[in-house]
Design goal:
Blueprint lengths: L2 H25 L4 H9 L6 H5 L3 E2 L8 E2 L1 H33 L1 H20 L4 H14 L3 H11 L2 H32 L3 H20 L33 H14 L1 H14 L3 H30 L1 H21 L3 H13 L3 H12 L5 H31 L10 H21 L9
Antiparallel strand pairs: 1-2
C-alpha cells in the first residue's frame, strides 16, 4: 500500500473521530430536559431524586410534571462534570499519547466512549447519569491527541489545511448532532445514546484496521505529571503584559457563550413548550449560521474593518442577540436573532489575532495554552452559574417567571467586556485601520 492512501485513510479516521466527538456532544442536548424530567420524577430514584423532585404547573409542562427549569440546574451540574473531566484529562491524555503513541490512546478512548454512551442509555437514576457524563468527559478528551496525530503525519505546507479540516469536522458535527438527536429523541428519549455508542464502536473498529501509529519511537518521551497539569498555563497569565485585558475579554466571551449549550434546551422546553425535535432544529439552524459566518464572512469582515473594529462589532452583535433571546415571547422570534448571534462569532478570532500579533513567536504556544485553560474553566463554572440563575428566575424570583434571565446575564457580562476591550486595544492604533 502506498504512503499517500495510507495517510489519507489516517486523516479520514481522525476527522471521523473529531466528528463523532462533536456529534456525541450535540446529540444529547435536545433530549436532556425530557430525560432529566423522567429521572427526577422516577419513584425510588434515590435520595438525590427525591429531594430534587420539584413539581410545578406551567404552560409548557402542565400539572404534575417536573419543569425544565427544575431539570436545568441538574443539567448544569452534569455539564460541569463533563467540562471538568475534559479540562483535567485533556493534558493527561495528550501526555499519555506522547509516551505510548497516538493509536492506542485513540482506540481505547473510542471503545470506552461506546461503553459510556451505553451507560447513559440505560441510566435509570440520576447518579448513573452523572457517572456516564463523567466517563464521557474523560474518554472524549481526545481532541489534543487528534491534533497531535495531524501534526505527526502532515508536513508544514499542508498542516494548516489539515487543522482547518479538523475544525470543519467539529463544526459539522455540532450541526448534525442536535438535528439527529432531536429526530431520534422524538422516537425514544434513549435512542440518541444508542446511536452515539454505535458510532463510537464502529469508528473504533475502523481505526483498528486502518489506523497506523504516527509517533516514531525516537520521538516519544517519558510521561510527566508536571506537563499534565491543566492549571500550569494559568500561571503564565502575568507574563503577557499589555494583552492581559484581552485575556479578560476572552474569558468573558467564553463564559457568556456557555449560555447556549447549558440553557438553550431548557429555555425552549419551559418557555415555548418545545420537544426534542424543535430544540434540535433550532440548534441546527444556529450551527448552519455559524458555519456560514466562520467559513465565509470572518475573513472578509476582518479585511474590511480591521481586527479592533471587528472585535467591537462582534461583541455588539452578541449583546443585541442576547437581549433578543431574553425578551422573545414566542419560539419563532428566536430564529430572528440566531443569525445576529452567529455574526457575533467574529469577535473571538479578531481578539486572538490581536493577541497573537503582540506576543513573540516563542510565546505563541504559551498564549494558546492560557486561552485553552481559560475556556476550560469557563466551561466548568458557566453551566453552574447560568443554570442556577435560570432556575431561580424561571420559578418567579423576580415576582413572575422570567425565562430569559440567563441570556440577560450573559448580555450584561458582554456589556462589561467592552471596557477591558477598549483598554486592551486603545494603544494599538494601527489596528483601527483595515
Amino acid at each position: 500500500m502506498s504512503k499517500k492512501p495510507l495517510a489519507a485513510q489516517s486523516l479520514y479516521f481522525i476527522l471521523l473521530t473529531v466528528l463523532i466527538d462533536s456529534i456525541g456532544f450535540g446529540l444529547i442536548i435536545p433530549v436532556m430536559p425530557e430525560l432529566l424530567g423522567d429521572l427526577l420524577h422516577e419513584p425510588g430514584g434515590g435520595p438525590v431524586n427525591q429531594e430534587s423532585r420539584e413539581v410545578a404547573e406551567s404552560p409548557a409542562t402542565g400539572s404534575g410534571q417536573v419543569t425544565a427549569s427544575s431539570a436545568a440546574k441538574w443539567g448544569g451540574y452534569l455539564a460541569f462534570c463533563y467540562a471538568a473531566m475534559h479540562f483535567l484529562f485533556g493534558p493527561l491524555i495528550g501526555n499519555l499519547s506522547d509516551r505510548w503513541g497516538r493509536r492506542p490512546v485513540l482506540l481505547v478512548s473510542l471503545g470506552a466512549l461506546a461503553v459510556d454512551y451505553l451507560i447513559l442509555a440505560y441510566a435509570t437514576t440520576l447518579w448513573v447519569l452523572f457517572l456516564g457524563r463523567i466517563l464521557t468527559g474523560i474518554c472524549g478528551a481526545t481532541f489534543s491527541t487528534a491534533n497531535a496525530y495531524i501534526a505527526d503525519v502532515s508536513d508544514e505546507k499542508n498542516r494548516g489545511k489539515a487543522f482547518g479540516l479538523v475544525g470543519a469536522a467539529f463544526g459539522i458535527g455540532f450541526i448534525l448532532g442536535p438535528a439527529i438527536g432531536g429526530f431520534l429523541g422524538g422516537l425514544d428519549v434513549h435512542a440518541p445514546f444508542y446511536a452515539a455508542a454505535g458510532m463510537a464502536f464502529l469508528n473504533m473498529l475502523y481505526g483498528f484496521f486502518v489506523l497506523p501509529e504516527s509517533l516514531k519511537e525516537e520521538n516519544r518521551r517519558p510521561f510527566s505529571w508536571a506537563r499534565a497539569n491543566p492549571l500550569g498555563a494559568i500561571r503564565q497569565f502575568s507574563h503577557f503584559g499589555e494583552i492581559r485585558w484581552l485575556l479578560v475579554v476572552s474569558c468573558m466571551l467564553f463564559f457568556s457563550h456557555v449560555v447556549y449549550p447549558s440553557t438553550w434546551n431548557y429555555h425552549g422546553a419551559d418557555r415555548y413548550g418545545w420537544g426534542s425535535r424543535e430544540i434540535g432544529l433550532s440548534l441546527m439552524a444556529f450551527g448552519i449560521c455559524s458555519a456560514i459566518v466562520q467559513g465565509g464572512l470572518i475573513g472578509r469582515i476582518l479585511k474590511k474593518l480591521g481586527e479592533r473594529n471587528t472585535a467591537f462589532l462582534g461583541i455588539s452583535c452578541n449583546i443585541i442577540a442576547m437581549a433578543g433571546f431574553a425578551l422573545s415571547s414566542t419560539g419563532w422570534m428566536l430564529y430572528c436573532w440566531i443569525p445576529l448571534s452567529a455574526l457575533g462569532a467574529v469577535a473571538t478570532p479578531a481578539i486572538k489575532s490581536i493577541m497573537s500579533r503582540r506576543v513573540s513567536p516563542q510565546s505563541q504556544g504559551e498564549l494558546q495554552g492560557t486561552l485553552s485553560s481559560l475556556q476550560g474553566i469557563s466551561n466548568m463554572v458557566g453551566p453552574i452559574v447560568l443554570t442556577q440563575v435560570y432556575d431561580r428566575f424561571a420559578k418567579g424570583l423576580a415576582g413572575f417567571p422570567f425565562y430569559g434571565s440567563a441570556f440577560l446575564l450573559a448580555g450584561l457580562l458582554l456589556c462589561g467586556a467592552m471596557l477591558p476591550l477598549f483598554w486592551g486595544t486603545s494603544s494599538l492604533r494601527d489596528l483601527d485601520e483595515p
